[in-house]
Design brief:
With 377 residues, the chain is an all-alpha fold. The chain has one domain. Helix content is 69%, strand content 1%. Helix 2 (25-44) packs across helix 13, helix 4 (62-88) crosses helix 8 and helix 7 (152-198) crosses helix 8. The longest helix is centred in the middle third of the chain and has 47 residues, at 152-198. It is globular, with a radius of gyration of 21 Å.
């Protein structure tokens, strides 16, 4: 019996998704690259580091590297939600939030507990205002947050995304969600321009606000829709033999955007972030399209994958790399050793045990929401 169009579409989706089951080594490798770039960017601005000026220019790598994390987060979260929707016909918000909490909160709580112990030693400095911002994930709403938790702004942006996006996907349906993502990409640029005209730099930091950075996450979400779309198969088939070349071209365009055009104010307000996010998404698509390409082989090497697995804990302990003080833990190379040791301890003793608890959640279906029913896009 000849298969129906719906059955053929399901088989095509399953075939495309077969490369995305379990952990994806290529994406862990991309996380590894990103955390290295972020660490170099933070280390380059250390006040007690005697470094040449060309090395201090590496600070410009920090923003794009965080955007890479945003694109990956948007892609993976949306892909998991769409898979659950197709498999179960529902999206369990309780399970989603529980899984996210187990993934994010324990290591973050351990970082804050360690901060409380480090304060009397003079290693960390965090006043009452700083504690309030850190505990409520609102670091990105104020300009010039305390240096020890300055990096938490990106975690705040992701937390806000986790709170809103699953519910929006359920209530809006796929077509509505796609429209919402398009609005997020265009609206973020418009909002950046409006706030730039209305407010001073001391009143707000446009680079930290959730709504002004949501376009990068939205691009990652759009990529998840793309890989689940049967009509996108020709694009991935075309990309398969050219994966490494396409990724190299995307990286060259990224460098041009960062180093050449990044000094233009209008370019940064309107074009830079969505364009760079789209280029990051293209690198991810190239990585997924061909699991035997040179690109996938490089990103799947053990050191990069290990760094990618450790990336969350490494990011939490970034303050040791761009110190707010001159104590012994901040001296090079002690600071690198301390940050790495703290990250490894956090991952082994906190992250791993909590991640094992996530398996239990897959057997429960509490508070499941049946998404808006509509034809597949």
């Amino acid at each position: 019996m000849e298969a129906t169009p719906e059955q053929r579409g399901s088989r095509e989706i399953a075939s495309l998704d077969s490369t995305l089951t379990g952990r994806i080594p290529g994406l862990d490798g991309l996380r590894g690259v990103s955390i290295v770039m972020i660490s170099v960017a933070h280390f380059s601005v250390a006040q007690n580091l005697a470094a040449p000026e060309w090395f201090r220019q590496a600070r410009f790598l920090g923003g794009p590297s965080v955007d890479m994390f945003f694109v990956i987060s948007g892609f993976l979260i949306t892909l998991l939600l769409l898979r659950e929707w197709d498999r179960e016909g529902t999206i369990s918000l309780s399970q989603f939030f529980a899984r996210r909490a187990l993934r994010i909160l324990p290591a973050y709580a351990a970082f804050l507990v360690a901060t409380a112990f480090l304060q009397p030693l003079g290693v960390a400095s965090l006043g009452g205002r700083g504690w309030a911002l850190a505990l409520t994930y609102t670091v990105n709403f104020v300009p010039h947050p305390p240096a020890w938790i300055g990096h938490v702004w990106s975690l705040s942006v992701e937390e806000h995304f986790y709170l809103v996006w699953p519910l929006a996907l359920c209530l809006c349906g796929r077509r509505g969600a796609l429209r919402l993502l398009a609005v997020a990409v265009a609206g973020a640029a418009a909002l950046r321009f409006a706030l730039f005209r209305m407010l001073s730099r001391d009143a707000i930091d446009l680079d930290l606000l959730t709504l002004t950075r949501m376009d990068t996450i939205a691009v990652g979400c759009l990529l998840a829709f793309l890989v689940r779309e049967p009509r996108a198969r020709p694009f991935f088939e075309m990309l398969r033999p050219r994966a490494t070349l396409v990724a190299l071209l995307a990286v060259m365009m990224l460098l041009a955007s960062i180093c050449v055009f990044g000094t233009s104010g209008k370019y940064c307000l309107f074009i830079k972030r969505p364009l760079e996010a789209a280029l990051f998404a293209l690198v991810i698509a190239a990585c997924l399209a061909n699991d035997r390409s040179l690109l996938r082989s490089v990103l799947s090497c053990r050191p990069l994958v290990a760094l990618g697995v450790l990336s969350y804990s490494l990011y939490l302990w970034q303050p040791l790399l761009h110190p707010p003080g001159n104590g012994w833990p901040y001296a090079w190379p002690v600071n690198i050793a301390c940050a790495t040791a703290c990250a490894v301890i956090s991952h082994v003793c906190v992250e791993r045990p909590c991640l094992r608890c996530k398996r239990w959640l897959t057997t429960r279906r509490d508070y499941a929401i049946r998404p808006v029913l509509e034809p597949s896009v």
